Amino acid sequence: MEAFEIIAEPNRRAILTLLVSSEQSVGEIERQLRMPQPTVSKHLRVLRDAGFVESTVDAQRRLYRLKPEPLQEVDMWLAQFRRFWSAHVDALERHLDRMHRDRADQSTLKKRKKTTRPKPRT
Q: Which of 14, 23, 74, 90 has minimal Cβ neighbours within 10 Å of its Cβ?
């Protein structure tokens, strides 16, 4: 199976996402993803056979960790498309910066209005 076939399956992507942050046991993956143990084991076997994860034995449990090398194939393929979305991401960043500045400016104006209100006549 090639990398794209492996990550096309949503449960396998969910497992890979969990393993990005730390190694996990089958039981931990099962609990966090609310997935039956046989399903977790089946997907881990596919991921292990394809080289996406490796396992070590820790006392009575098997711990799985991500092996990022197979994802390089996906990254290399996606590289040709990055130029299409990088301009959009840059535009979004500029827009969010403007929104942040506008809110800060509005907040400053409100504070000034509160402090410069004329005192009522008596």
A: 90
Measured CA to CA, the distance from residue 13 to residue 20 in angstroms comes to 11
Question: For 56-77, what is each residue's pLDDT tens digit?
Answer: 998 888 999 999 999 998 899 8
Query: Greater confidence, 24 or 93?
Result: 24
The answer on pLDDT for 117 being more than 70 is no
| Mean pLDDT (whole number) for 83-105 | 83
- Terminal Cα-to-Cα distance of the chain (whole angstroms): 85
Interhelix angle 26-33/37-49, nearest 10 degrees: 120
DSSP per position, the chain? --HHHHHTSHHHHHHHHHHHHS-EEHHHHHHHHT--HHHHHHHHHHHHHTTSEEEEEETTEEEEEE--HHHHHHHHHHHTTHHHHHHHHHHHHHHHHHHHHHHHHHHHHHHHHHHSPPPPP-
